[in-house]
Amino acid sequence: MPELPEVETIARAIRERYLGKEILRVFAWESRIYKDINANEFASRLSGRRINAVHRVGKYLYFDCGDCYPIFHLGMSGIFLQSRTQSKYPQHIHLEIHFKDGSELCFQDVRKFGKIKLSYHPPQFPELGVEPLSEEFTLHKFSKMLNLKAVRIKNFLMDQSRVAGIGNIYASEALFRAGIHPLRESNSLNREESEKLYLSIREVLREAIERFGTTYSAYRTVTGETGENQNFLNVYQRNGLPCPVCGSEIQKIIVNSRSTFFCENCQR
DNA sequence: TCTGACCTGCGA
DNA sequence: TCGCAGGTCAGA
Fold this sequence. Notes:
This protein is of the alpha+beta class. The chain has helices at about 5-20, 40-45, 140-150, 155-160, 170-180, 190-210; strands at about 25-30, 55, 60-65, 70-75, 80, 95-100, 105-110, 115-120, 250-255, 260-265.
């Protein structure tokens, strides 16, 4: 499922609805998504805690619960729902948090590619690269990273150790907006192209956040609604349809075993 | 650097 | 029935 805009949308919604609430009871069902901790222990550690803060780092989400920090990665199909009754697949709910005020928060992951962990210190993510919407992500830094090594630009964008948070949808969309072919080598971009791509990445992600993310299949917001950004995609999943800029047919190719969408005419 | 595996549901 | 889906990760 979820790339930076979807995880950010979820983080904001959880902040808005659950911040400061006291956890009364936690139900956690044993599943492969619990890493380095079993479901029972996770549940008992969380009970009685409060959600003091909600953070997103790349595609990770974590809560500050004072003396412990539950960490979530949503994999391909992980979502948070404000009630079990909203779930289409209650058999795939792995975690249910009940708050003292009667509200609840569920984590559902149909494909079980997600991860749930518990840290006893504020978590660090040393394996992740720069946050693309942070001040730290400058054009200068990005250009330097592009020139470090020859890597296919689509792979470069999806590599979480370089820029954290971009996945398959937004890689295709950012490259389209910048007019850059997905098979280009990262170090072949000239100054103008690097700047276009830099700006496109930020625009594409910001717009997607404003539209509550892209729902292609599993992703829902915490209230169970779909995002809106799928109505504004230029190339992703639009193979065979006309390019919104030039009218040429959008192409689909496989890059690193992932579907990749682009316009042969607009992207060079 | 690339491929396949992990898992389940859905649509063709 | 088959192929495909927002992501990682290990192993070749």
